[in-house]
Write a structure and sequence with these properties.
This protein is α/β, with parallel strands linked by helices and 225 residues long. 28% of the residues lie in helices and 24% in strands. Strands 2-1-3-6-12-13 form a six-stranded mixed β-sheet, sandwiched between helices. A four-stranded antiparallel β-sheet has the order 8-9-7-10. It starts with a helix and ends with a strand. The structure holds ribulose-5-phosphate.
């Protein structure tokens, strides 16, 4: 039986057309989309140029039989499809649970349409207190953490991985801070202000680009835009 993630991923397939450049997000919901897209592209003999947002998604896409390329190899991205960790009622997102949000943001903001696929567990009344991943240059990490704690009512900690001692290193060779803001306020302002801190590569707040949201519920997929 399909779960919410699969149901949302399946509904997102309807946005794909033959010949498109498609941005592939990262995480378990995006992985479902990649799997289903591979099957549909094969059945319909579609030619797609898929831009993965992580090494993980690149490997999944190749396994699913999709052709992948780098962002600079496609003239335009018609669509990007990705998951999220938290969604507020105004469709502001927090992403980066998998540490891929810097590339995810570039791809989502570059695409003509950005479709976000989630199950019900991601819906929240507000983003207050939800940890916001912030990718930082290693050189600047501790400095950025101090600046976040000084300028906001927040706590910022380096993300540590499993299987290796030390901080998580992203696909871009950077570190991640998980910053918990007691009150997020205006998510667009927070996104902009974090981006202005020298040393920040990208935050996991996605507020400047409104997605088409697909929520996979128990019995249906619901769309909000
Ligand atoms: C990865 C992400 C993912 O989209 C987010 O963590 C959601 O993951 P999942 O679909 O596994 O719940 O932002 O950086």
């Amino acid at each position: 039986m399909a779960d919410g993630k699969t149901r949302a991923a399946k509904a997102a397939l309807e946005f794909v057309k033959d010949g498109m450049g498609v941005g592939l997000g990262s995480g378990s919901t995006a992985a479902e989309f990649i799997r289903l897209l591979g099957a549909r592209a094969k059945a319909r003999k579609w030619k797609l140029a898929c831009v993965p947002t992580s090494e993980d998604s690149r490997v999944l896409a190749l396994k699913a039989g999709l052709s992948t390329c780098a962002l600079d190899e496609v003239k335009s991205l018609g669509l990007a499809v990705d998951g999220a960790d938290a969604v507020d009622p105004n469709l502001n997102l927090v992403k980066g649970g998998g540490g891929c949000h810097a590339r995810e943001k570039v791809v989502a903001y570059a695409a003509k349409k950005f479709v976000c696929i989630v199950d019900e567990s991601k819906l929240r009344k507000s983003l207050d207190g939800f940890p916001v991943p912030v990718e930082v240059l290693p050189f600047a990490g501790a400095h950025v953490a101090r600046a976040i704690e000084r300028d906001w009512d927040a706590k910022a900690e380096f993300r540590r991985g499993g299987g290796k001692l030390g901080p998580v290193v992203t696909d871009n060779g950077n570190y991640i801070l998980d910053a918990t803001f007691r009150r997020v306020g205006d998510p667009r302002e927070l996104e902009r202000d974090l981006q202005c801190l020298p040393g920040v590569v990208a935050s996991g707040i996605f507020a400047a680009r409104r997605p088409i949201l697909i929520i996979g519920r128990k019995d249906k997929a619901e769309m909000r835009a």
